Backbone:
């Protein structure tokens, strides 16, 4: 690791080649400094990386604080296979549609009261200015990283701090009904609220949240009932990234399944370059409960930081994913459920059995 002075900021440069999992900022072991009871964490240095792929993403399209980096260079491994540019403005439709999904989904999440990641104490502490989407040739459809980073080997990134999403350069028939941009984007919201990166929490909740643009108010109509035993909780929730827990709880919390999301109607008119609507319907059930869960989980994240004397905005990756904290995340989630009084009528037994699994 080397230190660079750039203006008033001190950047930490990664010397790992293994992606962000082996991220070096965490080995600053700033434990102890904590936030000392202050409302917002003190400023932190954004990490500066020099990954080789980033150097060749030499095109960018940006709007409303979202930057999409890509390449049209046919000699580059990450080149877009489809360079169609229907309106001839120089931005390929593929990139334009990524940008439109990101901007619309973000406006919706924010309009529903979820705290924008760039307004979170965590990312404010690192001086994050952009949501950066890197369009690449990759095996996954998308990935969302939680570290605050920039790249010093790409002139377009200009050493301005961002949070990074990687997206495949080759999603079949994108945009179609794809919601992967909205999905990865919601992970950034989760990261803004807490340090936890347990898969059941991240993916279960996000598989629900991407309904913001997909057909339906929740995934699978919320028909999968809540875990009723510890074994259910272990095998159907904790062991299953794309579990049905959040969809079921959001379904139970919704009072009016036909209600439009209370968003600016102009947002719902948003369309992709082919004219198809970005929002496939206006439904997202139970979002106030999900929002409350995130707020409770944020408190739990802060509590653990204090108990462990960890930097509240920078935990070791292994601690972020540590299953020993899953019951504490679950307790924070259950507190939101208890406070919402869902255990009534025909589902009282189901909800109470679930809540009994992790007592307050
Ligand atoms: Ca265009
Ligand atoms: Ca929907
Ligand atoms: Zn995900």
Residues:
């Amino acid at each position: 690791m080397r230190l660079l002075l750039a203006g008033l900021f001190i950047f930490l440069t990664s010397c790992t080649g293994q992606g962000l999992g082996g991220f070096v900022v965490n080995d600053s072991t700033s434990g102890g400094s904590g936030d000392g009871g202050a409302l917002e964490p003190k400023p932190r240095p954004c990490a500066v990386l020099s990954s080789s792929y980033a150097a060749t993403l030499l095109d960018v399209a940006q709007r409303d604080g979202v930057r999409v980096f890509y390449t049209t260079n046919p000699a580059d491994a990450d080149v877009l296979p489809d360079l169609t540019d229907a309106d001839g403005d120089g931005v390929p439709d593929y990139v334009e549609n990524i940008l439109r999904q990101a901007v619309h989904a973000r406006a919706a999440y924010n309009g529903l009261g979820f705290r924008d990641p760039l307004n979170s104490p965590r990312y404010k502490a690192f001086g994050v200015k952009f949501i950066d989407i890197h369009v690449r040739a990759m095996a996954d459809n998308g990935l969302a990283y939680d570290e605050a980073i920039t790249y010093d080997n790409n002139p377009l990134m200009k050493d301005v701090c961002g949070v990074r999403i990687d997206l495949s350069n080759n999603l079949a028939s994108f945009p179609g009904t794809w919601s992967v941009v909205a999905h990865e984007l919601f992970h950034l919201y989760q990261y803004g609220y807490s340090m936890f990166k347990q898969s059941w929490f991240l993916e279960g909740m996000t598989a629900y949240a991407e309904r913001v643009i997909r057909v339906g108010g929740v995934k699978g109509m919320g028909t999968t009932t809540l875990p009723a035993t510890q074994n259910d909780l272990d095998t159907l929730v904790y062991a299953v990234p794309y579990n049905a827990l959040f969809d079921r709880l959001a379904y139970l919390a919704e009072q009016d399944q036909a209600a439009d999301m209370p968003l600016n109607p102009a947002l719902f008119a948003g369309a992709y370059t082919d004219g198809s609507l970005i929002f496939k319907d206006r439904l997202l059930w139970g979002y106030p409960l999900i929002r409350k869960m995130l707020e409770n989980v944020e408190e739990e994240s802060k509590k653990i930081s204090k108990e462990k004397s960890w930097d509240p905005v920078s935990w070791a990756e292994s601690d972020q994913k540590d299953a020993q904290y899953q019951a504490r995340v679950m307790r924070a989630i259950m507190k939101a459920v208890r406070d919402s009084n869902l255990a009534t009528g025909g589902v009282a037994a189901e909800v109470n059995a679930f809540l009994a699994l992790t007592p307050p």
About this structure: The pocket of calcium ion (ligand 1) is lined by residues 85, 87, 89, 91, 93, 96 (CB under 6 Å). The chain has eleven helices and eight strands.
